[in-house]
Amino acid sequence: MNNYLKDYLLYLADTSLILSQRNSEWCGHGPILEQDIAITNISLDLLGQSRNFYQYAATLIGDNATEDTLAYLRTEREFKNCLIAEQPKGDWAQTILRQFFLSAYQYLVYEKLQAYNNEQLAAIAAKALKEVTYHLRWSSEWVIRLGDGTEESRQRMLQATNELWRYTGEFFITVDYEKEMNIDVADLKIEWMKTVRAIFEEATLPIPDNTFMQTGGKKGIHTENLGFILAEMQYLQRTFPGANW
Amino acid sequence: MLNFLPMLDNNKNKILSILEAVCDPEIPVLSILDMGIVRDVKFDNALLADGGIEVSITPTYTGCPAMDMIAVNIKLALLENGFKNVRINSVLSPAWTTDWMSEDGKIKLKKYGIAAPDKKNTIPKDGVECPQCNSNNTRLISEFGSTACKALYQCVACEEPFDYFKCH
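Output (structure tokens, whole complex):
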């Protein structure tokens, strides 16, 4: 059980950490100051959430594992984040849409987990849910603004949808560690689609047809993007092991 | 609010006054007691003999960078006042809420220029009272402000921008 719990915690932590890292690329580059601050605030929330999961995982792993060794010293195949988190930040439309898809998903996952039969996991989820609620509202409003905005913003949202939709399929494929924990994510698809449909409708954006879905992230099989993120994120600890300030 | 294990009243008052002096580093007018960050203080006779005390705190937002500093500051304040074995314990459940902010804290916030959290609405689009001129003719500029716990507004009446402490 602990082994599956450990993997599940790492999956949740990795998804938050990699998305946080991606969003932080906007720091100093946001379209306007207020939104630069917003996206980096979201990054900070996600980083905090991943720290909670890593800290808990580290206590289960033992063997001198810490939140830092889990974030900085694992290899690409050991990361279990959803593929969508590692995709390039792209333009503002792509960043917004990715945030919306993932926040809508995290909302449903944490909502369930807050009643899960593990006190620590439930406490982290309940705490994270409050923050994800903001992320979901903020990104929903931006999807609507851009989709139902100018011809240019609409085109970019269509392109972002085309780029990212294929990575949403794995949200709803239950992998072995979820199965062992009696977590069935297939169930979440109906609710997630309901949220996406409502916001897309208001944004006057079409829902893509059923299409090929790229999967594997939750099992450690990634797109080429993750290696580059880790190279940058882990560089310091790999080059100067144990460095701190 | 605080659940003190059996202890002498003068010790309780002493500890409260020490904690009252520890501020939120990002909103220095608020003490950690005003913020509702301190959830529990354990200080029984056995610990007392040893100069020991355990303070449980809860983070406001999970990524709030002030939390590590607050933990260090509590420890320092207690050490300076003669407690030898200070333990800081971080608890997540129940999750922190602005409902735990003291009424006194809300008054201090307003005086400092930050609108206090409104129980009815997390982030209202408008109508938040301007802490400068008290007008309700205000508008939301951004749901995310200078720190995770605040949103940015502007007063239409006096034109001053101001922070609103989000209801959480």
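Residues 2-239 of chain A form a domain with the Ferritin fold (CATH 1.20.1260.10).
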